[in-house]
Specification:
The structure holds 2 protein chains of 2 kinds.
Chain A lengths: L1 H24 L3 H26 L3 H24 L9
Helix pairs in contact in A: 1-2, 2-3
Chain B lengths: L1 H25 L3 H26 L3 H31 L11
Classes of the chains: A mainly alpha, B mainly alpha.
């Protein structure tokens, strides 16, 4: 069981690396922000899996904080930071 | 029995995370990418959390794990709405299939 949990965590980490590359490449600011949201969710999943596999229940709190921060980041991006300029050199 | 159910839920969750990543890479515009992101948020994380809650040592630990899910559900719905409305306000047209 623990092996499967760690394997799934590793698989999610591979997903996260792919999302990171796509976020660096992504042409518009919205693409990058959606990748950041995906990284937040995937990171939450990885932390919860690690908390189970390594018996570190504090990691569940870290996962909660990460989920909250991703939500706040997404809202802040939509409300304040996205002005629709496709060439984002700022 | 619970062990097998938990393993199956873990694999289903991993599949939905993978589907969300692939959809975010492959879909053409911001609206359909939001759709793909919601799959990873709601089903992927939900299945993983349910699988781990089945294995938890105590009821309190299981409830704490399951508490993350409604939070992420509400956050996903709110962020999806905010980003889609902003994209609409900025005049980004939804993608349409080219054809006759």
């Amino acid at each position: 069981m623990n092996t499967l949990v760690l394997a799934v965590a590793l698989f999610l980490l591979a997903n996260l690396v792919v999302a990171l590359i796509a976020a660096a490449r992504g042409p518009t600011p919205a693409d990058r922000m959606l990748m950041a949201l995906l990284i937040g969710t995937t990171g939450t999943g990885i932390l919860v899996l690690l908390a189970h596999a390594m018996h570190l229940s504090a990691l569940v709190d870290v996962a909660l904080v990460l989920a909250l921060l991703a939500a706040i980041g997404g809202i802040a991006f939509a409300k304040r930071a996205w002005h629709g300029k496709e060439d984002d050199h700022d | 029995m619970i062990e097998w159910l938990s393993m199956a839920l873990l694999l289903v969750g991993a599949f939905f995370f993978f589907a969300g990543t692939v959809g975010l890479l492959r879909f053409p515009d911001v609206y359909s990418r939001l759709h793909a992101l919601a799959k990873a948020d709601n089903l992927g994380l939900g299945c993983v959390l349910l699988a781990l809650a089945l294995q938890a040592e105590s009821i309190a630990a299981a409830l704490k794990l399951l508490l993350i899910w409604p939070l992420v559900l509400a956050a996903s719905a709110g962020v999806g709405f905010a980003i889609a409305r902003r994209a609409h306000t900025l005049g980004i047209a939804p993608w349409r299939k080219e054809g006759p």
